[in-house]
Amino acid sequence: MYYFQTKTKKSKKILNKQFAVMKKTIKPTDTRIKEEKRTIIKKKINENKTVTVRQVAQTSSALFFQFNTQLGPPYHILVDTNFISFSIKYKMDVVQNMMDCLYAKCIPYVTDCIVGELEKLGQKYKIALKIVKDPRFQRIQCMHPGTYADDCLVQRVTQHKCYIVATCDRDLKRRIRKIPGVPIMYIAQRRYTIERMPDAYGAPKK
Fold it and tell me: Does 65-195 carry CATH code 3.40.50.1010?
């Protein structure tokens, strides 16, 4: 008798579990629900559906066509610190090699923070500082505090799509690739080459 009672208790528990699993809810459109309750259910459903707003950054109007229409001769090229140092290492004239790459007049630009970086590096970068102060190089004033050039270049290129960035820094190139319509000039096979620019006839092809 005792064994039978325990068995029935266990079987009741199993049945209750199965009932909990198989329990169904009535749809709000069901005819059995009163209209007052139906409106309450609908309100709860609408409250649960939260609308997620996505903010997409506005792209420049210059990127309406296949590539950036603001780019054209004479080309305005923002030069990085390590680009100048690699040019010195391979004994390359900056302005002449830029023109050989793009087959057009090129105006190299340096910001105040890049000049500040070279001044901080001391005598080792004395030649680089001399190249930067060449009259062919244009100087851009920086309004931000500090001398970290990468953030300055990225911010400037994001705001104005008329520049080409000359750099050999991998991290900076990765950051600039995220900005649409900005070509990158770098050194490959002891020559200046450019990516994301279809009209660069003088650039060596990969």
Answer: yes
